[in-house]
Amino acid sequence: MAHFDNTELEYIVDDYYDVNDVDDHSFNNSDFEDSFELSKAKTDTSAVEVKNGKDIQGIPWERLNFTRDKYRESRLKQYKNYESLPLSHEQLQGNCKDVEKGHRFYDFQFNTRLVKSTIVHFQLRNLLAATSKHDAYLMQNYSVMHWSSVRRKSKEVLNVSKPIVPAMKYTGSVAETLSRVQISSMTIKDNLMAAGGFKGELICKHLHQKEVAFCTKLTADKNAITNAVDICQSPDGAMRIMASNNDGQVRVFDTNSFACLNCFTFPWSVNNTSVSPDGRLLAVLGDNSDCLLTDAKSGKVVNELKGHLDYSFASAWHPDGRILATGNQDTTCRLWDIRNLSKSLSVLNGRIGAIRVIKFTSDGRFMAMAEAADFVHIFDTQSDYAMGQEIDMFGEIAGICFSPDTEALFIGVADRTYGSLLEFNRRSYNSYLDSFF
């Protein structure tokens, strides 16, 4: 993974767009910048307002000298996708699956700018999690914020700008006080939050407790960003935390004692890992075009998945354990059937840039993949991924997540002016009524 000196917490991403050939205005123009002090009526956008013509992000296109369509056209032409390896885009397009777009699986529900997603590394976008259809957690500067979609209010859950002292000492674990952590990755499962830091930190906190349960610096390596954290289940049912770092290490921790149980070493920076639903297989992705399938207990490589053309940063397993999805900087997501790994089952392409986040609903019905900016794609798995919904917005995407009950989809947008949290609700189909007609 590309490394940057990040001494101050700010967006490292460039403004990839340039609308000078469209008009003198841009979204960073001070005439349109909103502060957190503005009223909800101005900063928030409801589904009713969108039906009446308001932009889902509250962008005042009527006050700009270019239309949304014109700006989208310019953005598609000018956005610069980061590439680590030379690509053959013609080859990619020819291999991609034809997807019937225009379906609506999730409807827009609400957008708030009272919380604003932020990112600290342009390649790392797992900075959003949901514990219910009403509760989302996101990174905002040096804070982990909780957003309640019922109360329409935010609350700080963790402040990492101040010294962080672990609440307890656990036998077999090595905890230490941390300070001014820049969170680069985050996940939540069963009320436990794990967060990785820009300088190799790991922080664990139970959401119902005020204090941090455990924190440490995983490595002294100068280039040791914690690229990903995952909370997963081992074959025997025990819960584990996996931390993937730029130093090529994947470290496995027990969620009760926070002791380090294992450490696997790979020849390149590890950007992402995901464990199969049965806990037996571990997908390892990083600064290599191949994805490795390893034994989750020993770390031994059992298969190499070849097909991507650049570095990978995202992966997710279908709940039935048969399909693994991998996201890459070559702008594609590949689907792998573990019963035949000689080549990918399908290739799904994006519109503008790298595939940074992939999520399945807990029932396995839908898969969502987020590009680095502007587009989130939702696929109906029951149609063999041939039916899709495209959510079109503007801004860098800090993360996406489905609620555990599949009813909500949250999208974190990182933008200096229009940074926000978008909420979509799953469409309800009263199929039982169809029998009466």
From TrEMBL:
The keyword Chloroplast does not apply. SMART domains: WD40. Keywords: Repeat, WD repeat. WD repeats lie at residues 305-346. Gene3D superfamilies: YVTN repeat-like/Quinoprotein amine dehydrogenase (2.130.10.10). Transmembrane segments: none annotated. This is Transducin/WD40 repeat-like superfamily protein.
